[in-house]
Every structure is written in C-alpha cells, then in structure tokens.
Amino acid sequence: MDKPKTGKTRETEQIKYCLYARKSTESDERQAMSIDSQIKEMTDLAVRDGLIIKEVRHESHSAKSSGLRPVFNQLLIDIKNGVFNAILTWAPDRLSRNAGDLGTLVDLMDQGKLATIRTFSQSFSNNPNEKFLLMILCSQAKLENDNRGINVKRGLRAKCEAGWRPGSAPVGYINRLTENRIAYVDIDPERAPIVKEIFERVVNQGQSGRTIKYWLDKTGFRTRVGKRMAISEVYRVLRKHFYYGMFEFPEESGKWYQGKHPPIITKELFDQAQRILAVPPKDWSKKDFPFKMLLKCGQCGASITAEEKYKKLINGKFKRHVYYHCTRSLDYDCDEPYITEDDLVRQLLVKINEIEFDQKAVDEKMKQEIERYHRLRSDVLHQEMFEQQMEVMDYPIIKEKSPEQRVREYVIHVLKTGFSEEKQEILALFKTRFILKDKQINISPRSEINLGE
After folding, report:
1. Exposed (0-12), middle (13-18) or buried (19+): which is 163, by Cβ within 10 Å?
2. pTM value?
3. Parallel, antiparallel, or unpaired for β 123-125 and 173-177?
4. In 3D, which of 324, 332, 348 has the Cα closest to residue 415?
5. Which of 289, 306, 338, 404 gives 325 a disulfide partner, CB atoms 3.0 to 4.6 angstroms apart?
6. Which of 312, 298, 289, 323 is nearest to 443 (CA)?
7. pLDDT of the residue at 450
8. How far is the C-alpha of 92 from the C-alpha of 215, rounded, in Å?
9. Three-class SS string for the chain?
C-alpha cells in the first residue's frame, strides 16, 4: 500500500514557479550577477529543494521605474490569471527597486494569487512579517538607487568644478588616464590641427560647412571611430566653446566652467567664427524662384536651385538678378554653369509651341484674369473713363485666333511680364519638363509622363 503524501509534498506540487532573472542595462549595476549565473544558481536551488519551475523568463532592463519592464509586466499579468503562483529569483532587488512594482507584488499576495517569493537565501510568503521584510529589502534597494543618483550628480559637479568635462572628449581631443587612473582630456595630435584649420577657413576664407566637409573628405579625414565628419558635426565643432577652454555642463543648463584642458584655438578666433556664422537664417519658402521645379541638371541629373544677387547701379539703386544652377547634390564637381532667369525665359519663349501644359486649366486662369480686369474697370476705374478713352484702353478680341493660340499668348504674356507668383502658378500647369545642359534648356525625355495624373 502506498504511503499517503505529506502536506509538504502536496503543497510543493501546488506551487508553480516562474524563474525570473534580470540584469540592469545601466552602469550602476554592471557588477550585478549576470542573467546566466542567476538562472544557473536558482535552477540548482530548485533541483535541490524539489521546486517546480514552470517557465524561465529574463530581461535586461532597469527596475528603477515602475511599469517599464515588458517581461516583468507580463509575469504580473500571468500571476493574476493563475498561470503562476510563485516567483523564484536571485534577490528581492531583481524584482523591484521602485514603490509601484513592490506594491503590485504585495497586492497579489494579499489577494492570494502570489503564494511565495523565493530568493537564494530567503523566502517570503503571505504573512505580515515576511511581507514587511520584503518591503524593507526592496525599499532599501530603492534608497540605494536614489542615493547613487545623488552621488553621481555630486561627483559630476565636482569634476566640472575641477575643470574636467565629463563624458567623451570632442573631435580634436582624447580621453586619457593617469597612473592613478584619474581621467583627463588631452590634445589629439592628429586631429587638433585639423579642428584649428576648420575655424581658420571660416574666418579667413569665409568657407561654408559644406565646403569644409568637401575638404575634409578630400583629405581623408576620419573621426576617432573611423567615420567621415557629417556637415552637422562640422557646425557642432564650430559652435563648441570647449575648443578655447570653456564648457557648459549639462548642455543648455547655463552652468559654465573653465576647463583645464589645453585649448586648440583662441577666444578671439572663436568669436570671429561666430560672427561669420551668425547670418540670419534664410527663409527659402519666401523666395520666389518659379523655374526651379521645371528643370533638372543635364550633366549629373541633380535638381536645379536658384539664388539672387543685387548689383549696385550708378544712381545708387540696386538691380536684382536671379541665377539658376545645379545643386551639385549628386556630384559635387558638376561643372554645369549657371543661367540667368532672363535667358531662361527667352529660351522658353522660343520653345513655346513645343511645350505641353494643361490647356483647360490655363484657359480657366485666363478667364479669371479677364473677370478681374472687368471688375477693375467697373468698380475702380469707373465706366465713364472707359467710355471716353475706349480707343486707348480697350483691346478688341481677335476672333480669328483659335482658343489654343490665345492660351499660348496668355502664357507668353505671363512669362514676359508677370510677377513671380503669377509665373509660378502658370509653370505649375506645365506638363513638359526640361534639362539644363551647357546653359541651354532642352525638353526632358520624361516629359511624356502626364505629371498632372
């Protein structure tokens, strides 16, 4: 006859453990036991004590804030649903270092859904003393976390006040350690001269960030990690006070410190570069360059951009000139010359009969202009004046012209005399696209595509 099972054995069979292992991804827990070691130690304990591990779960995530660990959150849900009723883990701080998650664990015990929490050296079940001890241990872990954060910040402030900026050194410098393992920042003999020349090129030659990047790439310059310097990084270098001896920490905090690192440039050179860089940002959305979207570069296939120049006349006034040229976004060495807007319009007028556009839309636009003209005539200029000067101001409609001819003549009129906004509206109705090559515009082969569809 089989012997009856003891109460302890029946209780053990009813306990369904989930082995939970966690390692923080943060530096303050680098010395914590690794996940593999936790799982091995707790599996050995389970074999030794006859515990049933239904599933093993692990994650690398900080427990300083509640509700942010996906594996742990799912474990709590499964306990509520009865999948598990016990947790096996290395230590209480693997489960919680915050009040929110700790409260949830205690609530599950109070509800009878979490029977026990077993660690390597302790066991916590649903009784007041053990729950109280669990809360003390987890609260102690939270206190250690909070104090560690305060201590780290205090250490960073002390380091800044001593003249050393925390973190990785910027381009042109390298981090070093003394024999006593005290960190400091020293000149990078390979890259510091390049950083100085970047500032000098801005001040002495007025070079832009793009031009400097082109020079850096051409000379084969690489950062400490072996990468080319991006344009954004070039501008970050030019804005960094660190290079003449000052630094702000944390960034945008307004707290400035005098560094002990050797400067690469002088304060005067830095200030001169800032004055050159402090050009008011151009609002390209307000610039009227209506022909940009009509053209592509015939040399390299890049887009066409435009810029305006002002020439001072003898009478003291200024004349505006607009030039269209390749953006060189695909080939920095593209040698396609610029073309003036006036020359561009003249070439378009020569090809006006070859250009395809939305006839119906242009016709509608022309009708709107005629209606506006008649409103001006009746509401502002008054009918009487037109009746007296009809032969001067009124233009008879030439009936023998076809609607297509009148539409094309209207397009020519806008291209010749219209404002930039009017030209842009008309050009948006063009189906034909052009390529610019050797200062000549030609119809692009892709113009057969109906761009309006």
Report:
1. middle
2. 0.41
3. unpaired
4. 348
5. 338
6. 298
7. 43
8. 57
9. CCCCCCHHHHHHHHCCEEEEEECCCCHHHCCCCCHHHHHHHHHHHHHHHCCCEEEEEEECCCCCCCCCCHHHHHHHHHHHCCCCCEEECCCHHHHCCCHHHHHHHHHHHHCCCCCEEECCCCEEECCHHHHHHHHHHHHHHHHHHHHHHHHHHHHHHHHHHCCCCCCCCCCCEEEEECCCCCEEEEECCCCHHHHHHHHHHHHHHCCCHHHHHHHHHHCCCCCCCCCCCCHHHHHHHHHCHHHHCEEECCCCCCCEEECCCCCCCCHHHHHHHHHHHCCCCCCHHHCCCCCHHHEEECCCCCEEEEEEEEEECCCCCEEEEEEEEECCCCCCCCCCCCEEHHHHHHHHHHCHHHCCECHHHHHHHHHHHHHHHHHHHHHHCCHHHHHHCHHHHCCCCCCCCCHHHHHHHHHHHHHHHCCHHHHHHHHCCECCCEEEECCEEEECHHHHCCCCC
Residues of the chain with CATH 3.40.50.1390: 7-147
118 and 90 Cβ atoms separated by less than 8 Å = no
Q: What angle do CA 243, 244, 248 make, to 5 degrees?
A: 75
State the pLDDT at residue 3: 47
Distance in Å from the first CA to the final CA of the chain:
89
129, 99 Cβ separation under 8 angstroms:
no
Length of the chain: 453
pLDDT along the chain (453 residues), means of 10: 45 77 64 77 91 90 79 91 92 84 89 91 88 84 72 80 87 85 86 94 87 91 90 92 91 88 93 80 59 87 85 75 87 86 88 82 76 66 51 48 75 81 81 88 68 39
Close Cβ partners of 64 (under 8 Å, ≥ 6 residues apart): 26, 97, 98, 142, 145
State the CB neighbour count (10 A cutoff) for residue 205: 9
| Ramachandran angles phi, psi of 435, nearest 5° | -115, 145
List every span in the chain annotated with CATH 3.90.1750.20.
173-277
Report the CATH architecture of 7-147.
3-Layer(aba) Sandwich (3.40)
| Residues 338, 306 contacting (CB under 8 angstroms) | no
Give CA–CA dist 223/448, Å, rounded.
47
Task: Give residue 418's Cα distance to chain centre.
Answer: 40
pLDDT for res 408: 79
